[in-house]
Amino acid sequence: MKQNKIxxxxxxxxxxxxxxxxxxxxxxxxLGLLITSFRPVSLINTTGWWTFLxxxxxxxxxxxxxxxxxALVGYRGTRTYLQDCESGDQPVSLNCDLSDLLNPRGxxxxxxxxLLVTIPSTIIPILFAAFAGYAFxxxxxxxxxxxxxxxxxxxxxxxxxxxxxxxxVYAKLGMNGTFWGVWLFHTGFGMPYAIYLLRxxxxxxxxxxxxxxxxxxxxHWSAFWKLAIPLSTPAIxxxxxxxxxxxxxxxxxxxxxLGGTKPVMTYQISNMVSSLxxxxxxxxxxxxxxxxxxxxIFFALQRFFVRGMLAGAVKG
Amino acid sequence: MAKPKVSAVMKQGKLTPWLYLLPALIVMGFFIVYPMINxxxxxxxxxxxxxxxxxxxxxxxxCWGIFENYRYALTEELNxxxxxxxxxxxxxxxxxxxxxxxxxxxxxxxxLGLLIAVLSDRVRYESLAxxxxxxxxxxSFVGAGVIWKFIYDFGTSQVQIGLLNAIxxxxxxxxxxxxxxxTLNTFMLIFVGIxxxxxxxxxxxxxxxxxxxxxxxxxxxxDGANEFQIFFKIMMPIIMPTVVVVITTMVINVLKLFDIVxxxxxxxxxxxxxxxxxxxxxxKNFQTGRGTAIAVVLILAIIPFIFMNIRxxxxxxxxR
Lengths: 316, 320
Prior knowledge:
- The structure holds 2 protein chains of 2 kinds.
- Chain A is mainly alpha-helical.
- Chain A is 71% helix and 0% strand.
- In chain A, α6 (144-154) packs across α8.
- Chain B is mostly helical.
- The mean pLDDT of chain B is 84.
- At the A-B interface, α1, α5, α6, α7 and α8 of A face α1, α4, α5, α6 and α8 of B.
């Protein structure tokens, strides 16, 4: 009996070893970024982040939040923003007050821009898709099945296909560099997957529910707002998370349609990477700032995220 | 073709469905359908879409007439002097790189995803393990690019602040410049892709595995099958359709992949893939005709998957 138990534990060792090994590989890179973002510049460039606990650096402070301050205000000098402000020789673009948070080169402004891009780009497609999903699920019309099959195919159209033509139309309409341009673009591209998901969910609701509402005198319009929308909250939640993360993390669309006129976080970071204007200390802090909101959403709402994915996530 | 009927009780006006569909149809028509058609026509024109692509041909050089941009898109990166140089230049071209991405990233994510799904099913910290593997899905390619650029960092001085080179020098090796060494760099980028997308494969495969009836496995165990036999002879055949779906989804994702390469190497040092090459032609060289021709090549590669998607959908509908 006892022998058996020891054997069982021994048999499980490789299982745990492999699992934990993979977990470590997956978590270490992000951990390294997080730790680095809190270390002072001088230490980042002379020692590896994994030495952060070693005690031979007593004369300098081991951790600082100055990287985050520098990243938020877009400071690119050789010292730190706080030092510069104290001695009063900050760059001309900075005022050393709260208005610096909106400096166009900083992550603070980019955070606001990212929100301004993402929130409408999440709400509008879901609203449009809910209308269409309702029609596909509960209304009868010619070509219903055919149209929906096309829609399934459109899910995988690569975004790159559409950039040039849209850019040309936008140029004529003066919509390049405007929020409207990006909102509508994300709406168009979010549509096929959103309709697909909502139609399948709405179609799985019991028929009697809609029929009895109809017999009680409800119109399709009120059935849509009073029944379909409230009942599909779980599907809408999944969809909202997906679309939010998709738009928040997008670089290509922001790069092409907004560029430097209204820099979002991904744009700002990719610029820092290529232009060498910022060292690792600012880059790591900026990257972590951009990951903060997605991480919170992910850990708080993982359930909905997974559900949306299982419902078939193939997206341009 | 099974056509699910809607309720006969719920009467509707003739126009009603179209009013519900209108906003969606307009935005999809404008942002997806119209650009596809327009892209095809632009790909047959010169760099700013003012004249036929045939006018860009030069005397004494190969020319495909109106398909000149396609000649550029398909053959420009190739060096066809001998068979050897042809192969070599293809292997390092954007097409060769995209092929590497497809083969290694898809197999990597699917195999690792499956492995983790199976392993985590047998440990008590399953949800923690899964959350950790899944987390990179939530962050942007740009964020991931920064994270991994730091891991791959190559120091010219004695100190290595990049983890990987620190390990290599710690073991007595010479530090490697991972991102500028051709061929190796593409594989280093592919690993970043695997890191990001394994969670996706794991989640879907894990839910398929959990749907396999417990009794089947028990019965096999009683008949003396070991864990490996149970996995390959019982589980695998049952989850095979899901594996196929995951593979096709991943192939599509990889074909469209842009951000990782753009952020980490900018397509330099022979890391270009189809999507970044298209971006370079369009926004750095301002060659709209060539850029759109590459985009058309990309959609041609994806068309088979569009049909697979539709067929799968029709099969699902038939079962409803």
